[in-house]
C-alpha cells in the first residue's frame, strides 16, 4: 500500500484529529481602514505572507480614483463588493469578478468608487513601489482621469 493509500485510509477511518489553531478567523467589520500610499485607496489586510508576497485584502476606492499604471507579476484576482472599477479591457461591477494575467500591464479607475476583495500572489509593480503600503509616508496622487482608454 502506497503513502497515498495510507492517507486515504486514515481519513476514512476517522483517526485524524483537527489541528488546533489551524484556522484563522477574521472580522473585517471590526478592522479599521488604513490609508495606502495611493490617495483615495484604503486597505484592510486579511492575510499576508510578506516572505513570498501573498496578500488578501479589502480595498476601498474613493470616487474618481485612478490607480497608476502597474504590472501584475502573478495572477491577481478581484471581486467587487460594491461600486465598480475599470480598465482598457472592461468594467467590473458589484457582484462581478475579474482576474489579471501574470505579466499584464494596466491602470485602473473607479468613477463611482468601489470596495473590492483582492487576492495577490505577488505585489503589483508600480514605477516607484510594489504592492499596497499602509505605512507609506508619501502619498501618490490618484485624482486624475485615466491615461489609457477605458471601456464603459
Write a short abstract of this structure:
The chain has 152 residues and is mainly beta. The protein is 7% helix and 39% strand.
Structure description:
This protein is mainly beta and 152 residues long. The chain is globular and about 60 Å long. The chain is 7% helix and 39% strand. The mean pLDDT is 84. A hairpin with a 5-residue loop joins strand 1 (34-35) and strand 2 (41-49).
Terminal CA distance reads: 58 Å
Give the integer mean of the pLDDT values. 84
The gross shape turns out to be globular
Q: Write down the secondary-structure element order.
A: HEEEEEEEEE
Task: Map the helices and strands.
Layout: H1 3-13, E1 34-35, E2 41-49, E3 54-61, E4 65-71, E5 76-87, E6 90-93, E7 97-100, E8 105-110, E9 114-120
Antiparallel strand pairs: 1-2, 2-3, 3-9, 4-8, 5-6, 5-7, 5-9
Record keyword descriptors for this entry:
single chain, 152 residues, mainly beta, seven-stranded antiparallel β-sheet, two-stranded antiparallel ribbon, 1 helix, 9 strands, globular
Amino acid at each position: 500500500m502506497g503513502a497515498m493509500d495510507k492517507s486515504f485510509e486514515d481519513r476514512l477511518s476517522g483517526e485524524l484529529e483537527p489541528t488546533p489553531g489551524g484556522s484563522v478567523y477574521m472580522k473585517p467589520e471590526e478592522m479599521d481602514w488604513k490609508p495606502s500610499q495611493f490617495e483615495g485607496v484604503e486597505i484592510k489586510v486579511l492575510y499576508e505572507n510578506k516572505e513570498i508576497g501573498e496578500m488578501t485584502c479589502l480595498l476601498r476606492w474613493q470616487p474618481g480614483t485612478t490607480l497608476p499604471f502597474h504590472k501584475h507579476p502573478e495572477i491577481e484576482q478581484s471581486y467587487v463588493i460594491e461600486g465598480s472599477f475599470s480598465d482598457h479591457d472592461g468594467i467590473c461591477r458589484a457582484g462581478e469578478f475579474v482576474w489579471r494575467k501574470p505579466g499584464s500591464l494596466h491602470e485602473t479607475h473607479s468613477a463611482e468608487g468601489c470596495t473590492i476583495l483582492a487576492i495577490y500572489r505577488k505585489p503589483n509593480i508600480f514605477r516607484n513601489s510594489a504592492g499596497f503600503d499602509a505605512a507609506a509616508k508619501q502619498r501618490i496622487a490618484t485624482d486624475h482621469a485615466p491615461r489609457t482608454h477605458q471601456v464603459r
